Every structure is written in C-alpha cells, then in structure tokens.
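ok trying this again, last paste got cut off
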Amino acid sequence: MNQQIIQGVRFHPDQMEEGSYLRHIKAFQHFTQLSFSKPITFFVGENGSGKSTLLQAMAIASHF
C-alpha cells in the first residue's frame, strides 16, 4: 500500500493527561488501535463523538 496513506492509528490512554477530554470520548475507550484497510475512509458519527478530534490528532501525528 502507498506509504503516503495513513494505514492506522494507535491510542495510548496512559500517555494522555489525567484531565484530558479524550479520556471521556466513549468511542476511544474500547480500543487502542484503529486500522484503515482501504484508501478511502469515512468517519461517521453523532455530534460530539470525536470525529474532528480524531482527524486533528491524526494530522498532528503525521506532521501535516
């Protein structure tokens, strides 16, 4: 797969600040890794479910 495509994300809850709101997003509480197997990925969810937060974190981690 093309190396310019983000293939996955790993979450490290133990490295998050104690008061971080990321610890309270239900979608992030039940897994530590998210893999993307196709070159197009859709993020769908209700308002406040963490879609924009996840995309922003991925952009920062990718030095975008």
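PB: full thing came through this time. The chain has a mean pLDDT of 80.
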